[in-house]
Amino acid sequence: MKKLFLVLVAVATLALVACNKEKEGSNLQDEQETQKVIETTTDADVPEFDNENLEEYIEVYDSYLDDYKEAVESKDMSKFQALSSKGQELAEKAEALATEGLSESDSRKLNEYMQEKSKEMQELAQKMMQ
User: Fold this and answer.
1) pTM: predicted TM-score of the whole model, two decimal places
2) Whether 17 contacts 122, CB under 8 Å
């Protein structure tokens, strides 16, 4: 249940940030700070899972995160709007994974991986809010 909660929190955070309107007059310092976060954000090693559906979910999630980073870098609100539907799809897939049940090993790996990705998302979200 914790893993589902973490996944849903990450997706909800993405959806909230995607809905914010772009601030007018962003300065060079904000852009440099955003670029710094993007560059220093480390990609967690993707663990190997026993569940093929979980592997597929992680691939889609990583693709989503890459698109999100791109949108933050460009501060293009149309990209954020496009990401909102992809975020909803991810939430549905996460829900489906939760109902199908995961092994203890897969649950632990997913939880650790998503915690790392949540930190990345929080850093990016903070930069977008400034």
Assistant:
1) 0.64
2) no
